[in-house]
Design brief:
Length: 498
């Protein structure tokens, strides 16, 4: 027995020196097997025999691409989200469950409560990818032909400039003893920044530059009253129409009456200048032209209205005279020739579209052939006319009596003053006639509106005996500086020519 035990021990010892068949392969064996397999594959019919071992590696450059590489700059328009705080497990579940059959447990009514209690949120509302924050802007000089989807910087095209128009007047002036008469024109602003206002039988001037008030004149008789005012283009003379059928001419600088012209048989309610020609409209329906340079001032009479002429305006180029009357007519007259035409002048156009008295008349400064007119309480319409063609371009129902009109060139807008029933001032965009803003500052009907020399402010006068100043058309500082530069260049050019 001992002999058999000894033999077993000898055999167990010898087995340790034999190769291990079920153990891991040695390193030299693995290297040899890999080299032999690569050689066999290189000689296979489907592969080329001269392919090197290095060709199996991924190429360093993408085939077909140019040598110029995309510049690697920080702050480009690519955005790679950070995934460390995203719900990747929820995202994986939501993506994989779309291909799985719908299970019955999903339709349990309280599945939402289970999801909230287990996950802290409803898994049906979970977002697969959530972008928190925006990328930085690209550095200066960086160019990319791809379309940028968004940027923190606002593009110039998206910046919308808005103009603020105050709903309250910038200044209010008292106008006691103002005559409450719709057909009179008691307010006018000169090119020298003097605002003239007629209060019963007195005329006052307000210096808008310094704020001083100047008393100009008073009619001799207490029962007489001032009906109309009109400045010359230079602003040095003021024409005054009175109820005693006269037209007075005053030198404002010396506060002296130059002359008094009598030709009408009724009160003079409207006046308008065209160089040295002063046109006056009377309650008799007649329009007189006065040449203020000569002693025989009355040179022409226009007879186109059957009732009082309450609106009178010369066009900016001096070619046409527009008149409106209480007979609901709008007439356009030709320019007066030197020497006068007697009573032979005929109206070019005579429009009867208005159903109320036409007092409001305004010529467009940037389109001299465009005339705007407004009707009274029975009409309430603003109509825009083309004098060249004689047609009505547009018509607008303002729902209120139109008492005065003026064009504002700074923003190409039209301002209308109204009486019954709104007693307000409205700014319209021209030519669309869309309402820009309504100005409410008067308690009674507004009679007249006039524009300041710089076209930035309008003055309105009302039956509540106050004058309101509205700074509604102040120009953009950049645009104003450009216009000033153009004017200075023009002046220098004129000086050099002289």
């Amino acid at each position: 027995m001992a002999q058999f035990g000894f033999e077993n021990d000898i055999h167990s010892i010898l087995k340790l020196d034999m190769p291990i068949t079920n153990g891991p392969m040695a390193r030299w064996q693995r290297k040899a097997s890999s080299s032999s397999s690569s050689a066999l594959s290189g000689l296979s019919p489907s592969k080329s025999a001269n392919v090197s071992l290095g060709s199996s590696k991924t190429p360093s450059k993408t085939p077909g691409k140019s040598k110029k590489q995309t510049p690697c700059k920080m702050g480009g328009d690519r955005f790679i989200p950070v995934r460390n705080n995203k719900q990747m497990d929820v995202a994986s579940f939501l993506l994989t469950k779309e291909n799985e059959p719908v299970e019955s447990w999903l339709y349990i009514p309280n599945r939402k409560a289970w999801s909230i209690s287990l996950n802290g949120y409803n898994i049906e509302d979970a977002k697969i990818l959530h972008l928190g924050g925006r990328p930085l802007n690209a550095p200066e000089g960086y160019q990319n032909n791809l379309k940028v989807l968004y940027s923190q910087a606002t593009t110039p095209a998206s910046v919308k400039k808005t103009r603020y128009i105050s709903s309250t007047p910038d200044r209010i002036l008292d106008a006691p003893e103002l005559r409450n008469d719709f057909y009179l024109n008691l307010l006018d602003w000169s090119s020298r920044n003097f605002l003239a206002v007629a209060l019963h039988n007195n005329v006052y001037l307000w210096d808008a530059t310094r704020g001083d008030i100047i008393f100009l004149m008073k009619l001799e008789r207490e029962e007489d009253y001032v009906c109309s005012l009109s400045w010359t283009k230079e602003g040095s003379y003021l024409a005054v129409g009175t109820s005693d059928c006269k037209v007075q001419l005053w030198d404002v600088e010396h506060q002296k009456r130059v002359r008094s012209m009598a030709s009408h048989t009724a009160r003079v309610g409207s006046l308008s200048w065209n160089d040295h020609i002063l046109s006056s409209g009377s309650r008799s329906g007649h329009i007189h032209h006065h040449d203020v340079r000569v002693a025989e001032h009355h040179i022409c009479t226009l007879t186109g209205h059957s009732q009082e002429v309450c609106g009178l305006q010369w066009s900016p180029d001096g070619r046409y005279l527009a008149s409106g009357g209480n007979d609901n007519l709008v007439c356009v007259w030709p320019r007066v020739q030197d020497g006068g035409l007697g009573n032979r002048s005929q109206a070019i156009h005579k429009w009867s579209d208005h159903q109320g008295a036409v007092k409001a008349l305004a010529w467009c400064p940037w389109q001299p052939n465009i005339l705007a007119s407004g009707g009274g309480t029975s009409d309430r319409h603003i109509r825009v006319w083309n004098v060249n063609s004689g047609s009505c371009i547009s018509s607008l129902d303002t729902q209120s009596q139109v008492s005065s009109l003026v064009f504002a060139p700074n923003y190409k807008e039209l301002v209308s003053a109204h009486g019954y029933a709104h007693n307000n001032v409205v700014i319209w965009k021209y030519p669309s006639l869309t309402k820009v803003v309504e100005l409410h500052g008067h308690d009674d009907r507004v009679f007249n509106v006039t524009l300041s020399p710089d076209a930035s402010t309008i003055a309105t006068i009302s039956g509540d005996e106050i004058i309101c100043l509205w700074k509604s058309f102040e120009m953009d500082p950049v645009k104003k500086a450009k216009e000033k530069m153009v004017k200075s260049t023009t002046n220098i050019t004129h000086q050099s020519i002289r």
